[in-house]
Amino acid sequence: ELFPLDSRFPYFMGTAYYQQKNYTQAVKYLKQAETLLTSDSDVRDNTRTLLADCYYYLKEYAKSDQLFEEL
Prior knowledge:
mainly alpha; 75% helix
């Protein structure tokens, strides 16, 4: 992996899987991106919003609700 601490790659992969409605794969990448984000609150909020949406579509409502409440 060329840039293991760069959050952009997992964020864009998660976004691509989200747009394809492959929510399980999107969660995998968005969770990775979330752990790497440090300063940009807009990107962090977008990542967490997408992640909460994925959990909703996967019928993991408790996880979805928790993330939305934290935003």
